[in-house]
Amino acid sequence: MNTKLITKSAVRVLFAVMLLITGTVAFAQDKVEMADTMRSNGKIYVVVAVCLMILIGLFLYVMSVDRKVRKLEKEGRELRVEN
Amino acid sequence: MQKSWWKILSFILLIYTIVGGFLLEVPRLFILNETIRNLYFHVCMWFAMMILFIVSFVYSIKYLNATNYRYDVFAKNFAAVGTLFGVLGYATGALWANYTWVTDQGQSLAGILKEPKLIGAAIAILIYGAYFVLRGSFTDLDKRARVSAVYNIFAFAMLFPSIWIIPRMVGSLHPGAPGSESGNPALNFNDIDSRLRMVFYPAIIGWTLLGVWIATLKIRIELIRDKALLP
Fold first, then answer.
1. Which of B18, B29, B220 faces A55 most closely, judged by CB atoms?
2. Do A52 and B11 touch (CB under 8 A)?
């Protein structure tokens, strides 16, 4: 797996998302309550970081399972050739 | 690892879902407040479930058509991951309802959850649960594959009345009910604007691809295990 490619594309996506965030004009405060304070003091990024960590962990796990299955499939193929 | 572009795509889209889903601007809605962001998670579970069940249904028909054991394995595992997403969708929906449907008028969550939409979804998931019970009750592999393929087609057909039709006919707090002025049981199009769509559609694709990935892993493991049975 080309990890460089993944990190490169991930960085690009993150960059694009950050552009979008800075680009959005803040909507005027109206009556509907939103988590504005959470955003202003920046702690929402902690939640994002935690969720990203979980997501990346899950993906690494699924990838490792995938790799194991691949290995088993290869072994099976070799056995079949030997027979 | 079996390299596939769609596995990488799934990863990138889900990263975007979480970063964009938490940080991008969303419409300011009464009662829902920030929970509208659950659209990127809860609703996507049901979309992924529906897509996985469609795939399972197609493989069941293919099995009946060709009697290839491989198709039976495909149908079973897509249905299994679909059911997992259904359970996740139900659980996340119950949690969401707890904070948006229960008002301060002395209702309880148990009272709120007696909803046609939720009962329909529960029935749909239980029907798929019975599919696995049915599979487990056979010792003859060919018979198991054939009968469960027929049952899977029935289970798929039952999805339509239970999660698509009945919720549109009876009053419900869930979007899509006749009183709620929106046309679709999956989501309220009055609430979905372009800001939500920008994350919502990539999120559906990302979650679905993750489900497909897990299903293919289960299929590959089962095919290795049952190699002796395959032609």
1. B18
2. no
